[in-house]
Specification:
Eight copies of one chain form a homooctamer. Chain A is of the alpha/beta class and 145 residues long. Chain A has a domain of 91 residues. Helix content of chain A is 47%, strand content 14%. Chain A has six helices and five strands; from the N terminus they run βαβααβαβαβα. The first copy, chain A, has a five-stranded parallel beta sheet with strand order 2-1-3-4-5, sandwiched between helices. In chain A, α1 runs parallel beside α6. The longest helix of chain A has 22 residues. Chain A starts with a strand and ends with a helix. In chain A, 54% of the residues are buried. Chains A, B, C, D, E, F, G, H: This is YtoQ family protein.
């Protein structure tokens, strides 16, 4: 059973790499897809379509260009992992979770205990809540065993 | 053309009432639907199904009970207004936006300029961004004229 | 917000009537729809299309005739209540739950504690688990307040 | 024509292996997918996400983790085989059948004659009812000939 | 429960009127919708869009104009009755049945015993097979009781 | 059978009014919905959300605000009339036609003979092509008779 | 562009083989899928599930077993060819056409001129009408060139 | 991540080839699909199904034959590029854009600045607007990096 996992959310820690590396080590055969996780180039994704003087429109263009990849990732994945770090608002991660829920795509959340209350609606529609990348790997390993 | 508007997001300011009152004053005929906006009873929505000792499960039960109303509201609305205040994380609002986007439901965002960058993905899928309830009313009035 | 509730499952106790009566008493405005709950006429639903000598085909015809009403009820409801009694197998109730889950229709389960383990997959996709009709009424009242 | 078959239901007999072995022997080229059929590890599927003191929540977490695999299996299969043994309630099997029916996925049931009446709604939406794994193999062989 | 029934197929006998009259007599509250059942005006439905010299295109235009009404009827009905007389080919009736099946709309067939073998695929996807309009009325009465 | 018709396209002639008036005169009971047909206020639809210095973004904002009404109109209509005048490019009309086609919504085109070749793909997916508003009225009258 | 074509309808002439052979000769790379075209084994498809004394039920079981293959064929094809011979009623072919139309699957019809009037609704929803297998091959060749 | 791009619109300039060549040069691994871009053979696509004396029907037949390839291209692509040249009406390109929008398929537009106002609705639903094929290549390169 080929299995594609979309890794959505926080870009300022190494959680994606830890999941990918651990799956490789354990020979869990999963294809991972991610949005562009480089902050700077992500913010500049739409610049090639012409410079903007207003922040709103620069952001708008880049967000829509990034959405091309994200849309394909969500529509084609079997499972999404939605990661919330403690610092940032990461509304895009919650947006992706809502998109998955509407499509009936299963997803797991990955966040610390202190975010429980703030994420209760996002967790309520999830297939599970993990606090460490290692738990995610364990579930992937279990799912594909 | 009967028209239903779902008012999603922030519950700590009077933005909903300002929209509802202004529409009434202007005779804009819209049916508004909202989630429960009383913080305390919303957090307690699942308590009638049995007490929980762990916060996670109390939140989980309440979020799922609240989802019954939200689900009907989103599925049956013609337009959603997604409001982000400056203080809170309001991941549920971003979740609703993603849900709307996946269903092809139009939505408008309502937030201050300082949130532009953090909300760029949510705004990118929206039909417009407003900063005041009065702008929302103007668009509703225009849409139904 | 007009609201339609489909009452699925057990037919040998008065749980439906208790919900309907309590909603009326509390002025919770809900439209209830149910399958035919009279055991005998339900089993005979297909007899008017010609007698059958084999049990399988008699059951088959009746189940398909009953499905006309059930299909309309599920497709048009905003919420389903799925009731499992302790005695019978009630696979039709679990079938309805799966049908709701695939359509993204919210549902609540209603069953005793002793059925928790056997119903874990059905409960996992539900918006809540209640043990008494009164709890269901409380949630309907809350949802439509 | 590549063909994927999802084997849902009873885990306490060797029906899956008999189907898989007979297809191999007859060179019927089918890809089979199944839920985790090991009772103990299936019940423990969610334990890696943290221990629970209440049975309901332990079951809840495990059922949702197991649903990841089942969801992919159902969504991607061309045909489901839904097996009901005589002993257990197997509401998850009926739930899977309802899910298939709502998606328009064809399925066959596999159960003894004594369950005919109890399964009439599940059988009514099926593409056929078999009593032995060998009949299932014959239909697969016929379908892919 | 408002209920709409689409009456598809044969136009050369009084089966529609018999169903409508009997429902009225029995106070079965159903809204009936039908295609244009007047052969001549149905064949001429597209003539107002310009005369055609070739039969194929005259038929083509009329069939597409008639499809406007039929499409709304099928999409909005809760149940379709598909009637096959003994004389004609009535491929449009079988086409409507296939359309209903793909949408998950329940339908009943109405035809004589001699057509059983020729209609086996159409009957296989139906919720029941009747031979008289009176049986249809009985099922409608039962469904809405 | 309640029937809603969406009138899309050209805004510089009186075709909408001619259809609406003739239906009223003939007592054809149809509910008509249209986009904003006032050129100036349509172009300014987004201005209330803040002035723009670049034409592209002013157009962008207005088009998205106008899309709220159009989206509801298309999703809820039973039939669309897509009108192409001889002068303008009217890509929005062709866009609406493609949107209808993807949703399976029937539509009629209304344009002069000289546009036949340029509109061949749009006409190919239509239920008919008319050259005068009177023909449209005749079809509506026929459809709802 | 991989391309799958479903060949539906008449089983008493060699039209399928003529299309398949000509595509091979012209190196048109298409994957063809068909229902079981052997009359006798098709009628007996359900016999392995138990003998039936009534013709209706024997037909019913076989039609449902055959539907497994047909369902996968229709759902996964890019184009269907629907063939009507002059002799038989072939309601299954018209049923398949309606099913394709509801799913938005393109199809071509293949039939003689004398069937034009009887097939007008089926042709109206088709992407084209051919009278010879060679025309079908020419369109496949053109489509995949 | 395999990625398919549908190149829709203008056929009188070399924009397709420039995109395809530049992707090859940059090793951007994309599968491109296009409609038939040869004007003459495209207009003649339906001629093999029989000659027509009226232009409307010749165009109709050809457009429907061409739609087979276009339908598969749109349904299976991850991204569409919709190109509008300055000269022609290209309503088929706007039709494709509307079709993509309704399906939730991302698309980019490619056109000169002078078409901004006329294309505002088409651009409003797009993920971006480019003026040169090189910008499209840059976005594809970025998306698949």
């Amino acid at each position: 059973m080929a299995f594609r996992v979309y890794l959505s959310g926080e870009i300022h820690s190494d959680w994606r790499q830890r999941i990918i590396d651990a799956c490789k080590a354990k020979q869990v055969e999963v294809e991972f897809v991610s949005p562009n996780t480089d902050h700077e180039s992500s913010d500049a994704a739409g610049d090639c379509l012409g410079a903007e003087t207003q922040n709103f429109w620069r952001d708008h263009k880049s967000a829509k260009v990034n959405a091309i990849r994200i849309q394909t990732a969500i529509q084609s994945c079997d499972l999404a992992i939605i990661r919330f770090g403690n610092k940032y608002k990461q509304w895009n991660a919650a947006f992706d979770a809502g998109f998955c829920a509407a499509l009936g795509k299963p997803y797991l959340t990955l966040h610390d205990e202190e975010l429980i209350h703030a994420l209760k609606e996002v967790d309520a529609a999830a297939n599970g809540w993990a606090t460490t990348p290692e738990q995610i790997v364990e579930i992937l390993d279990y799912t594909l065993r």
